[in-house]
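# step 3/5: fold
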Amino acid sequence: MINKKRLIQLTQKLIQIDSQNPPGDERKIARFVADYLKRLGINSGVYEFKKNRPNIIAVIKGRGLKSLLITPHLDTVPAGRSWTVNPFGGKIIRGRLYGLGATDCKANLAAAMEAINSLRDDLVTLPYTLIFAATAEEETGSDLGLIPLLNRNIIKPDAAVVLDADDFDIIITQKGLMHMTVKIQGKRAHGAYPWLGVNAIDIAIDAIKAIKAIRFSRTRHKYLRPPTINVGVIKGGDKVNIVADWCEFELDFRFLPGSRADEIIKKVKAILNRRARKYKIQIQGVQEPYNIKETHSLVEYLKKAARKIRVKSLVLGSEGATVITFFQHKFIPAVATGFGCGGCAHIADEYVKVENLYKGALVLEEFLKNYKFN
Protein backbone atom coordinates (compact mmCIF):
# COMPACT_ATOMS: atom_id res chain seq x y z
CA MET A 1 0.00 0.00 0.00
CA ILE A 2 1.25 3.48 -0.87
CA ASN A 3 2.42 5.27 2.28
CA LYS A 4 1.59 8.97 1.86
CA LYS A 5 3.82 10.25 4.65
CA ARG A 6 6.74 8.18 3.43
CA LEU A 7 6.19 9.40 -0.14
CA ILE A 8 6.15 13.07 0.88
CA GLN A 9 9.32 12.69 2.92
CA LEU A 10 11.00 10.89 0.01
CA THR A 11 10.08 13.68 -2.40
CA GLN A 12 11.45 16.27 0.01
CA LYS A 13 14.72 14.38 0.34
CA LEU A 14 15.09 14.17 -3.44
CA ILE A 15 14.45 17.91 -3.80
CA GLN A 16 17.07 18.63 -1.14
CA ILE A 17 19.69 16.97 -3.35
CA ASP A 18 21.14 19.41 -5.89
CA SER A 19 21.12 17.86 -9.39
CA GLN A 20 21.10 21.00 -11.53
CA ASN A 21 22.05 20.53 -15.18
CA PRO A 22 24.04 22.45 -16.18
CA PRO A 23 26.55 22.09 -14.67
CA GLY A 24 25.50 18.44 -14.57
CA ASP A 25 26.46 16.08 -11.76
CA GLU A 26 23.97 13.38 -10.75
CA ARG A 27 26.27 11.48 -8.37
CA LYS A 28 24.53 12.40 -5.10
CA ILE A 29 20.99 11.75 -6.27
CA ALA A 30 22.00 8.56 -8.09
CA ARG A 31 23.67 7.27 -4.93
CA PHE A 32 20.56 8.12 -2.93
CA VAL A 33 18.33 6.19 -5.36
CA ALA A 34 20.67 3.20 -5.42
CA ASP A 35 20.85 3.10 -1.61
CA TYR A 36 17.06 3.34 -1.37
CA LEU A 37 16.64 0.37 -3.70
CA LYS A 38 19.32 -1.59 -1.85
CA ARG A 39 17.39 -1.19 1.42
CA LEU A 40 14.44 -2.81 -0.38
CA GLY A 41 16.64 -5.73 -1.35
CA ILE A 42 16.91 -4.58 -4.97
CA ASN A 43 20.37 -4.40 -6.53
CA SER A 44 20.95 -1.76 -9.18
CA GLY A 45 23.59 -1.14 -11.81
CA VAL A 46 25.37 2.16 -12.36
CA TYR A 47 26.11 3.15 -15.96
CA GLU A 48 28.22 6.21 -16.73
CA PHE A 49 28.96 7.53 -20.21
CA LYS A 50 30.84 10.51 -18.79
CA LYS A 51 32.42 11.08 -15.39
CA ASN A 52 29.95 12.16 -12.68
CA ARG A 53 26.89 11.45 -14.89
CA PRO A 54 25.55 8.11 -13.57
CA ASN A 55 22.36 6.31 -14.59
CA ILE A 56 20.73 3.85 -12.19
CA ILE A 57 19.19 0.67 -13.60
CA ALA A 58 17.30 -1.89 -11.53
CA VAL A 59 15.69 -5.07 -12.84
CA ILE A 60 12.89 -6.64 -10.78
CA LYS A 61 12.16 -10.11 -12.06
CA GLY A 62 8.56 -11.15 -12.59
CA ARG A 63 6.80 -14.27 -13.81
CA GLY A 64 6.56 -13.63 -17.53
CA LEU A 65 9.02 -13.32 -20.37
CA LYS A 66 8.13 -9.72 -21.24
CA SER A 67 9.65 -6.62 -19.66
CA LEU A 68 8.24 -3.16 -18.94
CA LEU A 69 10.38 -0.06 -18.39
CA ILE A 70 9.48 2.90 -16.19
CA THR A 71 11.91 5.79 -16.45
CA PRO A 72 12.05 9.18 -14.72
CA HIS A 73 15.13 11.41 -14.87
CA LEU A 74 17.50 12.57 -12.14
CA ASP A 75 18.56 16.04 -13.29
CA THR A 76 16.82 19.40 -13.12
CA VAL A 77 17.26 22.69 -14.90
CA PRO A 78 19.27 25.40 -13.05
CA ALA A 79 17.37 27.17 -10.26
CA GLY A 80 18.03 30.73 -11.42
CA ARG A 81 17.60 33.74 -9.12
CA SER A 82 13.86 34.40 -9.02
CA TRP A 83 12.81 32.00 -6.26
CA THR A 84 10.94 33.38 -3.25
CA VAL A 85 11.28 30.08 -1.35
CA ASN A 86 14.31 27.84 -0.91
CA PRO A 87 14.56 25.79 -4.17
CA PHE A 88 16.14 22.96 -2.18
CA GLY A 89 13.86 23.18 0.84
CA GLY A 90 10.95 20.94 -0.08
CA LYS A 91 8.62 23.10 1.98
CA ILE A 92 4.85 22.43 1.94
CA ILE A 93 2.62 25.51 1.76
CA ARG A 94 -1.16 25.15 1.45
CA GLY A 95 -0.98 21.68 -0.08
CA ARG A 96 1.86 22.46 -2.46
CA LEU A 97 5.32 20.97 -2.10
CA TYR A 98 7.85 23.52 -3.38
CA GLY A 99 11.30 22.88 -4.76
CA LEU A 100 13.47 22.69 -7.84
CA GLY A 101 12.36 19.66 -9.84
CA ALA A 102 9.19 19.20 -7.78
CA THR A 103 7.20 18.81 -11.00
CA ASP A 104 10.07 18.05 -13.39
CA CYS A 105 10.72 15.41 -12.42
CA LYS A 106 11.38 14.49 -8.79
CA ALA A 107 7.71 13.93 -8.00
CA ASN A 108 7.66 11.27 -10.72
CA LEU A 109 10.93 9.79 -9.47
CA ALA A 110 9.54 9.63 -5.93
CA ALA A 111 6.24 8.12 -7.11
CA ALA A 112 8.12 5.37 -8.94
CA MET A 113 10.35 4.61 -5.96
CA GLU A 114 7.38 4.54 -3.57
CA ALA A 115 5.38 2.33 -5.95
CA ILE A 116 8.26 -0.15 -6.05
CA ASN A 117 8.50 0.02 -2.25
CA SER A 118 4.76 -0.62 -1.91
CA LEU A 119 4.88 -3.59 -4.26
CA ARG A 120 7.71 -4.98 -2.15
CA ASP A 121 5.76 -4.41 1.08
CA ASP A 122 2.75 -6.26 -0.34
CA LEU A 123 4.89 -9.12 -1.70
CA VAL A 124 3.55 -8.58 -5.22
CA THR A 125 5.14 -10.54 -8.04
CA LEU A 126 4.43 -8.86 -11.35
CA PRO A 127 3.47 -10.88 -14.45
CA TYR A 128 6.45 -9.36 -16.28
CA THR A 129 9.95 -8.10 -15.47
CA LEU A 130 10.00 -4.47 -14.34
CA ILE A 131 12.95 -2.35 -15.40
CA PHE A 132 13.49 0.89 -13.50
CA ALA A 133 15.85 3.42 -15.11
CA ALA A 134 16.59 6.74 -13.37
CA THR A 135 18.52 8.59 -16.04
CA ALA A 136 21.01 11.43 -16.26
CA GLU A 137 21.18 14.48 -18.54
CA GLU A 138 17.57 14.54 -19.77
CA GLU A 139 17.42 18.32 -19.54
CA THR A 140 20.25 18.75 -22.05
CA GLY A 141 19.52 16.04 -24.59
CA SER A 142 19.87 12.55 -23.00
CA ASP A 143 23.14 11.85 -24.83
CA LEU A 144 24.59 10.63 -21.52
CA GLY A 145 21.40 8.96 -20.36
CA LEU A 146 18.54 7.24 -22.13
CA ILE A 147 19.99 7.36 -25.65
CA PRO A 148 23.16 5.31 -24.99
CA LEU A 149 21.26 3.00 -22.62
CA LEU A 150 19.00 2.11 -25.54
CA ASN A 151 21.61 2.20 -28.30
CA ARG A 152 23.97 -0.10 -26.40
CA ASN A 153 21.14 -2.49 -25.51
CA ILE A 154 21.73 -2.01 -21.80
CA ILE A 155 17.97 -1.78 -21.47
CA LYS A 156 15.82 -3.76 -23.90
CA PRO A 157 12.22 -3.51 -22.70
CA ASP A 158 9.20 -4.72 -24.61
CA ALA A 159 7.32 -1.52 -23.69
CA ALA A 160 8.12 1.71 -21.87
CA VAL A 161 6.46 4.38 -19.75
CA VAL A 162 8.39 7.63 -19.49
CA LEU A 163 7.57 9.33 -16.20
CA ASP A 164 7.95 12.94 -17.25
CA ALA A 165 4.58 14.62 -17.79
CA ASP A 166 1.95 16.53 -15.81
CA ASP A 167 -1.58 16.17 -14.44
CA PHE A 168 -1.87 12.40 -15.18
CA ASP A 169 -1.88 13.11 -18.95
CA ILE A 170 -0.95 10.24 -21.27
CA ILE A 171 1.28 11.45 -24.10
CA ILE A 172 0.96 9.23 -27.18
CA THR A 173 2.36 11.46 -29.92
CA GLN A 174 4.72 14.34 -30.44
CA LYS A 175 6.06 16.57 -33.15
CA GLY A 176 9.37 16.02 -34.83
CA LEU A 177 12.14 18.52 -34.16
CA MET A 178 14.95 19.81 -36.36
CA HIS A 179 17.43 22.57 -35.56
CA MET A 180 19.17 24.03 -38.61
CA THR A 181 21.78 26.75 -39.15
CA VAL A 182 21.93 28.45 -42.55
CA LYS A 183 25.09 30.42 -43.46
CA ILE A 184 24.91 32.71 -46.48
CA GLN A 185 27.94 34.27 -48.14
CA GLY A 186 27.67 37.53 -50.08
CA LYS A 187 30.19 40.06 -51.41
CA ARG A 188 31.63 42.89 -49.33
CA ALA A 189 31.51 46.46 -50.61
CA HIS A 190 31.32 50.07 -49.38
CA GLY A 191 27.90 51.00 -48.01
CA ALA A 192 27.75 53.98 -50.37
CA TYR A 193 28.00 51.66 -53.36
CA PRO A 194 25.77 48.69 -52.48
CA TRP A 195 25.39 47.71 -56.14
CA LEU A 196 29.05 46.68 -56.11
CA GLY A 197 28.41 44.04 -53.46
CA VAL A 198 26.02 41.23 -52.66
CA ASN A 199 24.21 41.76 -49.37
CA ALA A 200 23.95 38.46 -47.50
CA ILE A 201 21.44 39.94 -45.04
CA ASP A 202 19.06 40.85 -47.86
CA ILE A 203 19.33 37.33 -49.23
CA ALA A 204 18.70 35.89 -45.76
CA ILE A 205 15.59 38.04 -45.25
CA ASP A 206 14.15 36.91 -48.57
CA ALA A 207 15.05 33.28 -47.90
CA ILE A 208 13.50 33.34 -44.41
CA LYS A 209 10.21 34.63 -45.82
CA ALA A 210 10.14 31.78 -48.33
CA ILE A 211 11.15 29.17 -45.73
CA LYS A 212 8.41 30.34 -43.37
CA ALA A 213 5.93 29.71 -46.20
CA ILE A 214 7.01 26.09 -46.70
CA ARG A 215 4.09 23.67 -47.05
CA PHE A 216 4.45 20.57 -44.93
CA SER A 217 3.23 17.17 -46.11
CA ARG A 218 1.09 16.87 -42.96
CA THR A 219 -0.67 19.87 -41.45
CA ARG A 220 -3.37 18.33 -39.24
CA HIS A 221 -3.34 15.94 -36.33
CA LYS A 222 -5.96 15.06 -33.74
CA TYR A 223 -3.67 15.72 -30.78
CA LEU A 224 -1.18 18.27 -32.13
CA ARG A 225 -1.20 21.84 -33.38
CA PRO A 226 -0.07 22.52 -36.98
CA PRO A 227 3.67 22.46 -37.78
CA THR A 228 5.77 25.51 -36.93
CA ILE A 229 8.98 27.22 -38.04
CA ASN A 230 10.73 29.59 -35.67
CA VAL A 231 13.70 31.85 -36.49
CA GLY A 232 15.53 31.81 -33.18
CA VAL A 233 18.82 33.54 -34.07
CA ILE A 234 19.98 35.83 -36.85
CA LYS A 235 23.27 37.70 -37.19
CA GLY A 236 25.35 39.13 -39.98
CA GLY A 237 27.51 41.96 -41.29
CA ASP A 238 30.41 43.78 -39.68
CA LYS A 239 29.55 47.50 -39.81
CA VAL A 240 26.67 49.73 -40.84
CA ASN A 241 28.54 51.26 -43.80
CA ILE A 242 29.69 47.93 -45.23
CA VAL A 243 27.64 45.68 -47.50
CA ALA A 244 27.26 42.53 -45.43
CA ASP A 245 29.14 39.65 -46.97
CA TRP A 246 27.87 37.15 -44.41
CA CYS A 247 24.68 36.31 -42.59
CA GLU A 248 23.58 33.27 -40.66
CA PHE A 249 20.33 32.30 -39.01
CA GLU A 250 19.06 29.39 -36.95
CA LEU A 251 15.73 27.66 -37.52
CA ASP A 252 13.57 25.50 -35.29
CA PHE A 253 11.22 23.19 -37.21
CA ARG A 254 8.41 21.28 -35.45
CA PHE A 255 6.62 18.87 -37.78
CA LEU A 256 3.86 16.30 -37.53
CA PRO A 257 3.92 12.53 -37.79
CA GLY A 258 3.85 11.74 -41.48
CA SER A 259 6.38 14.48 -42.34
CA ARG A 260 10.11 13.85 -42.48
CA ALA A 261 13.17 15.97 -41.80
CA ASP A 262 14.79 15.11 -45.13
CA GLU A 263 11.75 16.45 -47.00
CA ILE A 264 12.09 19.78 -45.18
CA ILE A 265 15.83 19.97 -45.86
CA LYS A 266 15.19 19.39 -49.57
CA LYS A 267 12.69 22.28 -49.67
CA VAL A 268 15.05 24.63 -47.81
CA LYS A 269 17.86 23.82 -50.27
CA ALA A 270 15.57 24.56 -53.23
CA ILE A 271 14.75 27.97 -51.73
CA LEU A 272 18.42 28.81 -51.13
CA ASN A 273 19.50 27.59 -54.56
CA ARG A 274 17.23 30.21 -56.14
CA ARG A 275 18.58 33.06 -54.00
CA ALA A 276 22.16 32.53 -52.89
CA ARG A 277 25.34 31.88 -54.85
CA LYS A 278 27.09 30.43 -51.83
CA TYR A 279 25.53 29.00 -48.70
CA LYS A 280 25.96 26.22 -46.17
CA ILE A 281 23.38 24.27 -44.16
CA GLN A 282 24.28 22.67 -40.85
CA ILE A 283 21.88 20.36 -39.00
CA GLN A 284 22.35 20.53 -35.24
CA GLY A 285 19.92 17.77 -34.43
CA VAL A 286 16.84 15.87 -35.55
CA GLN A 287 14.19 14.00 -33.59
CA GLU A 288 11.66 12.33 -35.80
CA PRO A 289 7.97 12.65 -34.82
CA TYR A 290 6.39 9.92 -32.75
CA ASN A 291 2.96 8.34 -32.70
CA ILE A 292 1.37 5.34 -30.99
CA LYS A 293 -2.24 4.18 -31.27
CA GLU A 294 -4.64 5.27 -28.57
CA THR A 295 -5.81 1.66 -28.34
CA HIS A 296 -2.38 0.37 -27.29
CA SER A 297 -2.38 -1.56 -24.03
CA LEU A 298 -0.09 1.01 -22.37
CA VAL A 299 -2.74 3.67 -22.89
CA GLU A 300 -5.66 1.44 -21.95
CA TYR A 301 -4.16 0.28 -18.65
CA LEU A 302 -3.01 3.77 -17.65
CA LYS A 303 -6.56 5.04 -18.25
CA LYS A 304 -8.00 2.15 -16.23
CA ALA A 305 -5.63 2.88 -13.36
CA ALA A 306 -6.58 6.57 -13.37
CA ARG A 307 -10.28 5.70 -13.34
CA LYS A 308 -9.73 3.33 -10.40
CA ILE A 309 -8.07 6.11 -8.39
CA ARG A 310 -10.71 8.58 -9.60
CA VAL A 311 -8.45 11.07 -11.30
CA LYS A 312 -8.89 12.68 -14.71
CA SER A 313 -6.41 11.43 -17.28
CA LEU A 314 -6.36 12.91 -20.79
CA VAL A 315 -4.76 11.41 -23.88
CA LEU A 316 -2.68 14.18 -25.46
CA GLY A 317 0.16 15.02 -27.80
CA SER A 318 3.35 16.92 -27.01
CA GLU A 319 4.35 20.02 -28.96
CA GLY A 320 7.86 19.71 -27.52
CA ALA A 321 10.45 16.99 -27.87
CA THR A 322 10.34 14.33 -25.15
CA VAL A 323 12.38 11.15 -24.92
CA ILE A 324 9.55 8.88 -26.10
CA THR A 325 10.79 9.41 -29.65
CA PHE A 326 14.04 7.56 -28.92
CA PHE A 327 12.21 4.27 -28.38
CA GLN A 328 10.87 4.06 -31.92
CA HIS A 329 14.36 3.39 -33.31
CA LYS A 330 14.33 0.18 -31.29
CA PHE A 331 10.69 -0.60 -32.18
CA ILE A 332 9.67 -0.28 -28.53
CA PRO A 333 6.17 1.11 -27.90
CA ALA A 334 6.29 3.98 -25.40
CA VAL A 335 4.09 6.61 -23.81
CA ALA A 336 4.77 9.37 -21.30
CA THR A 337 2.79 10.19 -18.19
CA GLY A 338 3.41 11.95 -14.91
CA PHE A 339 1.99 13.64 -11.88
CA GLY A 340 3.51 17.11 -11.79
CA CYS A 341 1.52 20.31 -12.23
CA GLY A 342 1.00 21.78 -15.67
CA GLY A 343 2.84 25.06 -16.21
CA CYS A 344 5.22 24.46 -13.28
CA ALA A 345 8.19 22.87 -15.04
CA HIS A 346 11.25 25.12 -15.28
CA ILE A 347 9.64 28.03 -13.41
CA ALA A 348 10.73 29.81 -10.23
CA ASP A 349 8.84 28.55 -7.17
CA GLU A 350 8.17 25.24 -8.88
CA TYR A 351 5.82 22.97 -6.97
CA VAL A 352 3.81 19.79 -7.06
CA LYS A 353 0.43 19.39 -5.39
CA VAL A 354 0.71 16.90 -2.54
CA GLU A 355 -2.56 15.30 -3.63
CA ASN A 356 -1.21 14.86 -7.19
CA LEU A 357 1.91 13.26 -5.79
CA TYR A 358 -0.04 10.80 -3.66
CA LYS A 359 -2.62 9.90 -6.29
CA GLY A 360 0.15 9.64 -8.88
CA ALA A 361 1.87 6.96 -6.85
CA LEU A 362 -1.48 5.17 -6.44
CA VAL A 363 -2.13 5.30 -10.19
CA LEU A 364 1.36 4.04 -10.99
CA GLU A 365 1.09 1.16 -8.53
CA GLU A 366 -2.34 0.21 -9.87
CA PHE A 367 -1.01 0.27 -13.43
CA LEU A 368 2.04 -1.81 -12.60
CA LYS A 369 0.02 -4.47 -10.76
CA ASN A 370 -2.51 -4.90 -13.55
CA TYR A 371 -0.66 -4.24 -16.80
CA LYS A 372 -0.85 -6.99 -19.39
CA PHE A 373 0.90 -7.06 -22.74
CA ASN A 374 -1.28 -7.37 -25.85
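# step 4/5: annotate
The chain is about 30% helix and 25% strand.
# step 5/5: archive (pending)
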